Amino acid sequence: MPETARGILMVLRVLPDVGRARTWTLGVCIVLTAGLPIVIAVLTGLLIGQIVSAAEAGPASAEAGAAITTLIAIGVLVVVERAIGPIMAATASTLGRDLDRYLQERVLSAVNRPGGIAHLEDPDVQDEIRIVRGLGMSAYRPSQTVEALPQVLSDWLRALGSAAVLFAFQWWLGLLWLVLWPVVVYRMQRDYARIGQEGYKQSTELRRAEYTRDLALNTPTAKEVRVWGMLDWLISRFDSTWRAAITPVREARRPRPATVLGSSGTILAINALSYGLLGWAAVRGDLELGALAVFVQALIGANSYALGDEHFYLSYASVTVPKLLTLERRLLQNRPREPRAALTAVADTAPREGIRFEQVTFRYPRAEREVLSGLDLDIEAGRSLAIVGENGAGKTTLVKLLSGLYEPTQGRITMDGADLAALDPAQWRRQVAVLFQDFARYHLPVRDNIGLGAPEHAGDLDKMRLAADRAGALDVIEALPHGWDTVLSREYENGVDLSGGQWQRIALARAMFAVEAGARVLVLDEPTAALDVRAEADLYERFLELTEGLTTCLISHRFSTVRRAERIVVLRDGVVAEDGGHEELLELGGHYSYMFNLQAERFRTDSVVSGEGGTDA
Ligand SMILES: Nc1ncnc2c1ncn2[C@@H]1O[C@H](COP(=O)(O)OP(=O)(O)O)[C@@H](O)[C@H]1O
Ligand SMILES: [Mg+2]
């Protein structure tokens, strides 16, 4: 019970936030559902007494009038009682669904509240986020708690109220009822709650199973699933992980003989005792007919603890709410560093001087190896910088640090002299437009795919057109069947899919739109996978022209595509190994010069290449 009770209390505490009027309605319905049968029972007892008196006094007597009044009152109450059932069920159902949505929204915003993304790589956090993913369909829906609550609560109230009525017959019998039933229910609930808890313990296993299942369901993986003939493997893996996860839950679900026999035995015994005593009292003439009727009704009421699925849902689902709220609390508290006293505001014109990495060391959470080891780098405002390095050198990591998605393990990053960690992350990110290597392909209209670069300006079609034009995406968009409204996914009516290169231009347009909306730093992190060396070089050169005066970072593992940048740094072994202009670095005769010549050689002999390129190397 403690677990379930805690869950129920939490549900009750948040319900007013979900819907105040509905919560009140539900509360009133519960009380009426519980109380009306008791009142009706007592009135029925009263009526029986009144009828006996009325029969003696005659039809025109005051006694007969009283009996008729009572009869009418009972009639009204019976109608009210009938009417409340559907109202209560409908209210509970709506309120339940609203609770599901409310909790999802709370967790959604909590998951995104921490400035960084390190928490998303925490398996424990993912185990709990899985619960949110499943909220729409799983048996763990908190809405089921709300749907079960009115039934269970009104039953309990009625049972307790009825037990209280029995006090008038025999105080100790009433007390027995008051105590015994809750004990029985407590034991049952404990078993149910264990099932729910067991289910959560399997979150990691279930997450594995669901991942395997989704590989076979999702379009992005559809090609590989077929080409590699993965389906049988996926199904058998899904089957085994799923079974492994579900077996302990099934074990927990098996009824425990001690609980079942113990509780039914107890209930049987107390009922036998109560009816026996009532019968005995009636036979001896200690009880009037009216009182007997009331007490029999009360006994029936005292038995009205629901023992069905409601309890199951209650315990099951009530485990979810504490889990979600704990996750929320953890996400909101568990920031990479202590919450700062006050965040520094970021000016619209920032950065004026530049961004500086000072002895930055970085290691991913739970990783063995440092990616950056005491890196120093000055990114001057208003100039273009190229960062080159081989795959895995840490280029993307550097960008993630720059955009505040992670914080340095040691050292610090400053922007115009202020520690990045002290800046308002949302304001800082508004100044930075980053196009990542693995940019997102939103299954949304083109308009949104570009507008999301600066959601608060998303209505500005002029800016969007300009951005699309600069990114070379305007032609792509104008050729679409519904222009700017075309959904970029074939999974939707009239949607289309784009080629890799077209997607890339749309993503570039998104970054350019952020620039149009005011971002002062533009980072292009090899969004060029779909391009050949030549096209990448062209694109970077065009961007350097377009973004003159902006703080620009071009990132590439191809040493031959960024030579037009004002400054080039080579990232190697976690530090800046070389730093200078193209010519300077060539003269230096180091890694850049070696790699550039190696790649430019291939570049030159590439049959597609014409004109300049790496030829003057
Ligand atoms: N989220 C992560 N968790 C742990 N290690 C990571 C993560 N992302 C990247 N790495 C590791 O960090 C190193 C640098 O990666 P990355 O910055 O992506 O390199 P680059 O962009 O230069 O190719 C690689 O060894 C990579 O495996
Ligand atoms: Mg990278």
Written description of the protein model:
The protein is an alpha/beta fold and 617 residues long. It folds into 3 domains: 2-200 and 255-333, ABC transporter transmembrane region fold; 202-254; 354-605, P-loop containing nucleotide triphosphate hydrolases (Rossmann fold), CATH 3.40.50.300. 60% of the residues lie in helices and 9% in strands. The chain has 21 helices and 10 strands. The protein has helices at 2-18, 20-57, 62-112, 123-134, 142-166, 171-201, 203-217, 222-227, 231-253, 257-283, 289-302, 309-333, 395-402, 425-431, 446-451, 461-470, 474-478, 500-516, 533-546, 582-588, 591-605; strands at residues 354-362, 372-380, 384-388, 410-415, 418-419, 432-435, 521-525, 551-556, 567-572, 575-580. The strands form 2 sheets. The chain has a 6-stranded mixed β-sheet with strand order 6-7-8-3-9-10, sandwiched between helices. Strands 2-1-4-5 form a 4-stranded antiparallel β-sheet, with helices on one face. Helix 19 links the parallel strand 7 and strand 8 (551-556). The longest helix has 51 residues, at 62-112. The radius of gyration is 36 Å and the shape is elongated. The termini are far apart. Residues 607-617 have low confidence and may be disordered. It binds adenosine-5'-diphosphate and magnesium ion. Residues 121, 364, 367, 371, 389, 391-397 line the site of adenosine-5'-diphosphate. Adenosine-5'-diphosphate (ADP) binds at residues 121, 364, 367, 371, 389, 391-397.
